[in-house]
Amino acid sequence: AQSVTQPDIHITVSEGASLELRCNYSYGATPYLFWYVQSPGQGLQLLLKYFSGDTLVQGIKGFEAEFKRSQSSFNLRKPSVHWSDAAEYFCAVLRGGTYKYIFGTGTRLKVLA
Amino acid sequence: DTEVTQTPKHLVMGMTNKKSLKCEQHMGHRAMYWYKQKAKKPPELMFVYSYEKLSINESVPSRFSPECPNSSLLNLHLHALQPEDSALYLCASSQDTSGLTDTQYFGPGTRLTVL
Question: Under an 8 A CB cutoff, do A106 and B42 touch?
């Protein structure tokens, strides 16, 4: 079955610390992968995406993600977290040819001052 | 510019009211989407329009009626809603590659409360 798993429901980090949010997918074909961020009561903002090519993808706001086919993972990283990064983060895979995203359940990030 | 706008930002309606949500994009995208999002959950797809034609209806109750008057506009007409329909309604758009590599850009959402 096609699915996206975000194992961590909540993560708390201190401001300035590094961050890694995990995303594992189950998808038979070439995955098109996305990370979105959502602040409370707001829409989803695209952080980065992976379609092909270099497996280390740079995004906005200093985020990056690495696609590892052998581990079926697309983890999101940031070297130094800012208080404004506190939000909900969603990983998604596009079911090719369907317009449909399979979303993970999300990871809520809390940043301690 | 990757902006999708939605109006209104907040909407409170009774179960007998008729209201509409509006979504607009000027990115030249030809696919547009409506999602419903409950608290602490990922968005759930409701409808997809491709080139102004309804392409996908995820078995949404008929009290929700989408409309795509032109390539830039998407409406969601609401009638006889239930309190459980209270949610954040998100609009999104994408370039339309027949769903093969579409990257969706989301609006800020309309917070709907049904009394």
Answer: yes
For residue A79, give the nearest of A21, A13, A19 by alpha carbon.
Answer: A19
Q: Which residues lie below 8 Å from residue A53, measured CB to CB, with a gap of 6+?
A: none
Asked if B89 has any chain A CB less than 8 Å from its own CB, the reply is no
* 8 Å CB contact of B100 and A100: no
Mutation target to probe the A interface, by most A beta carbons within 10 A, among B4, B32, B45, B74 is: B45
Q: Detail the DSSP E strand segments found in A3-106.
A: 3-5, 10-14, 19-21, 24-26, 32-38, 44-50, 56-58, 64-68, 73-78, 87-95, 100-103
Summarize pLDDT for A35-91 with one digit per residue, the tens.
999 999 899 999 999 998 899 999 999 999 999 999 999 999 999 999 999 999 999
Distance of CA A22 to the CA centre of its chain: 7
Indicate the residue type of A31.
P
